[in-house]
Backbone:
């Protein structure tokens, strides 16, 4: 429920306005020297442009000795400091539209209404920490996600300008596209453990995610088969090593150190020319084919509007409230690093399980 | 890997041209009298229009006594009869484009090349059996999925006519939309166990699935917050019972019988008027809000083309082959019942876990 | 690995001489008001007579509001204060006999040698916290464990007197017997999920545990069937309600509150007269029969001897060392509360899963 | 519940007098050529001296091609042939003492009373099949279990003679001791995943198991520390390779083939001289130290007595019945191969997870 992963496992905890958020990473191999700066960089990406600006001071409680992993659980804590819980007093007995207030109340019979409690996106800070470690673990595999910018995208600079002006009027969503390179072929599981299914689950677990597609995605539904199929690249035969050989060289051969040094020596130049297009997004039958893994995640707009909204009260009535907590106008730029984090944990898990 | 679910668990087995396919359902409550006709009906829906026409003769090996569940594992087997394995001989040492031939070979070092082996959609027959049982278990909850028909959809009648004519030229994909009604509010888990995340994983595990979206999905990415948010229905206050009361009455109160009789007495009329729109698809923060659950699944076109295609050989060359196995031109109408089956298993699992 | 349980789940972390030990409890129902005093009492029992006397100051990081559970993960931390890590310097490159130094080094390639690191019994403090909460959850079910005292048991008072005298001579083990009363019949799972198997696993996971037996245990191996079998109590028929009725009244009927109030209204007087003896320890076929659950756990002696011992060095030699860390002479009296904690978590898990 | 293992997973099904018993093995690596004769031999060991003599005709439904594993689920079925269900008619509404009749009824509200249904030891046939495959997977690791014979053991030949004579009088239990050799050091998990805890759970899941101990077990509870501790063997330093080196050579280095060929090249002669005694049974802190793994399992006597017994009726009364099904007088000789099977699955699982 609050645990993600099979072998590289993250368990998170923490309410938005409680004492702290954090997590335990279980299953991280021993003897990995952590790059703390890289973790801080990802945390900073998650904070970019946020109205609630906390420094995210990480405290490592266990699992490390002199910055090197012991193989034991890595526990970390980030204290909540910049909370203005009194902003949320009016919400104690009513439910905002678009939020999880009502559903949490239905499920648990009570909730911490301050700042969204457990349902707040504050929780993703723990994912970013674990994801930053997972990235280091799988290092030759590279993950890059970013918000797509198109004609229909909001001009966030303009949005922010208007907000500074007091003239804000609305919120926005968007799409994050993600690309994973350097992953060898043969990673994944068939049937219910498909790599695509795990990525879908990981991405849809991010707050505000509302859609997921691999490769060309929904557009494939209206293509013809002859257009859709990714054809083999005919220059493969020229100097290609036998495919089986490619695979063997990619296999983990050591334990107790980062996967990065020896385990994933893929041949990206070769693999990434396997097919002439990549409509399937690099996964066939749930298993990677060595091409880049490509997928997109749709996020709905921020559900805290700047204007007053009608809230549902516990006795079934409506009450108009101006929600005064600090909320972004568009969370998608910040979501990109969370997409990367979840992808990194998925890949780390498969690589550890598929050793 | 080959197991789906936490408490209502299906483990499947079987290669397309092996001796049999089937599964074990573990965690089905005792004392449920199975409606065998309903199971046969769903199996027939999965076969509709298929070129490989097997009767899907189910043999129940355990877990039932006089058609009533014992609470012990329900094992079932469906023998493969209508196999023409010799059609696949040319594929023993080469990999079709668009299929999982190459990735299975990379992962396992060998494969059963006949009819796609384990990667064949033949495997979904076990899902349909388990899904048909799950539907009975959650009976007041209704699940309906169907292929969407639009201007861009293929006219399958015409396709079929051309195929009969020998004039076929291409294959098609499509979109299945699914709607779950009668599910009470408060079902789901937060964070990594979100109902939406589980549905995404379940759907993306279906062969040929390439995209998933809740509610209004990708369209939400370009909406403004004020357009997107589902407003509370203001007629709720009129005669609404306290929401907490609604929930209590929906809770399971007996064990050892189908969930249907007493456990899910939702108040659909009331719940389904909770919000004025349902852009979020009935799930907030990973937990159902009592509105219908609505989602869509995109399927790419059938990857076995009627015309000859270039296959990759084990030594890295290309070979042009005419694949002679029997393959549909569009699998999406048949996929609808598989979507229902997976949805039913997800819902059954949550209801059993959330009792 | 560092997680215990299915639905009531404890994940622990922490090295003996690291910054902190602690854990996350996931799956505890909401709306349970915790008795903090009871938790402190169990922590004090775990400390009784220990040479390392830390106050075990608990900090609750999440999952509670005003002392009531939210249904979200309960994270807690206990800082390590009374560490004398320098005592362990000589152990950096050699392995004590009887300890896990060598096996941890083999598994992880490195270890935190200070105070036993993760392998230290210090880790059990997190179990005691979670167990104390589990006990409250299952309240009408009572769990009592204690060290058995027999002619062959060490006189710990005398041991302690000699130790104070500087005249230490040796260390001791012992047996903890445990009795669980008030558990209704029908709790457990068959085959691999037997209640007896889960209890065995839970108990053997406690540091220094070396044996486990249900009921009459090893003695049963040399009994005849006619002596062993627990005969039905013939006074049952007098005023017995139908057994099915007994069961129904024991079933959970509410969610979101402690199990204690309504869920486990067993009829101990009746159930505990079910059979005339209880050689099987209250479990048949892996499922409780309503009689008290009775089992015993054997603990080997403390493996840190007061006298100098030969340690294995990393290069395969031997080195005689006097281990100067503070170590008990007999850990068994302190282990009783850990046995209770593990038993309580097992029972809480089954009751939540079997709702 | 009916699934055992994490990566090498067995799910079993089947009632004693139903159509069939069997299972699905998921997670067995690909490219393992199965020795079918070895599987039959273990099945024959399980049948030895049994009154119910079925040939255990195995049908393999999936996962194999030409006797080689595909990496996909291996499903197998054994039809029940030699059933005399009418023997059990009197048991439809009453519960034998010592059996799981009553507890199954309490848990499920109904049961298949014929031959013990799912609770029958008939279920262990699936364990033996999976265990025989696991043994082949871990081949250099050897597992041997047998019934201990002592002065207090029953003379089974004499028992059998009396039975043939019509002069039967009672049933017996006994102890199985098991020894695993060739397992390298460093295998296992700490805290809740201790190898000793998993073995305990596996063994206590066998029908009639009532006690488990590692190494010297319960006897350790009354030893002094100086007697108990296993001292390092001082001849280790002579020609010992560095311990780390020993470990590296034992690590898996290939995937997709049996573990046997390359993965477990232990150095038993060296490892098995690590300590001068083996009181701990080869496991420290939950992790193997390279010495033989040694444990014992106590089985209570067969609970079906040859003489009439008083059964509990559904309405709380007692009824004297002569149980006429065919039952062994002592199941322990047959249990040895089940102990081996469970041990082999535990070891295979750890080796696959710890790769």
Residues:
């Amino acid at each position: 429920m609050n645990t993600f992963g099979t072998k590289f496992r993250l368990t998170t905890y923490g309410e938005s306005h409680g004492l702290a958020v954090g997590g335990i990473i279980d299953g991280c191999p021993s003897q990995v020297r952590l790059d703390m700066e890289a973790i801080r960089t990802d945390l900073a990406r998650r904070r970019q442009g946020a109205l609630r600006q906390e420094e995210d001071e990480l405290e490592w409680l266990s699992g490390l000795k002199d910055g090197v992993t012991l193989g034991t659980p890595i526990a970390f804590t980030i204290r909540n400091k910049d909370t203005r819980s009194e902003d949320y007093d009016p919400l104690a007995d009513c439910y905002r539209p678009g939020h999880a207030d009502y559903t949490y109340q239905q499920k648990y019979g009570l909730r911490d209404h301050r700042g969204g409690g457990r349902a707040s996106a504050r929780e993703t800070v723990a994912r970013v920490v674990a994801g930053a470690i997972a990235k280091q673990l799988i290092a030759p595999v590279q993950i890059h996600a970013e918000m797509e910018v198109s004609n229909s995208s909001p001009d966030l600079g303009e949005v922010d300008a208007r907000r500074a002006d007091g003239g804000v009027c609305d919120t926005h969503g968007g799409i994050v596209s993600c690309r994973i390179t350097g992953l060898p072929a043969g990673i994944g599981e068939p049937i219910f453990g498909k790599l695509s299914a795990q990525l879908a689950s990981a991405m849809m677990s991010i707050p505000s995610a509302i859609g997921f597609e691999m490769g060309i995605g929904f557009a494939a539904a209206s293509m013809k088969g002859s257009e859709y199929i990714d054809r083999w690249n005919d220059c493969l035969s020229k100097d290609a090593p036998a495919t089986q050989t490619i695979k063997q060289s990619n296999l983990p051969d050591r334990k107790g150190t980062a996967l990065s040094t020896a385990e994933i020596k893929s041949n990206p130049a070769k693999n990434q020319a396997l097919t002439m297009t990549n409509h399937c997004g690099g996964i066939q039958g749930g298993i990677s084919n060595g091409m880049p893994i490509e997928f997109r995640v749709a996020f709905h707009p921020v559900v805290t509007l700047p204007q007053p909204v009608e809230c549902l009260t516990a006795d079934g009535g409506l009450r108009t409230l101006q929600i005064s907590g600090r909320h972004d106008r568009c969370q998608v730029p910040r979501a990109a690093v969370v997409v990367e984090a979840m992808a990194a944990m998925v890949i780390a898990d498969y690589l550890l399980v598929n050793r």
Remarks:
- The interface with chain B takes residues 7, 72, 190, 251-255, 353-355 of chain C (CB under 8 Å).
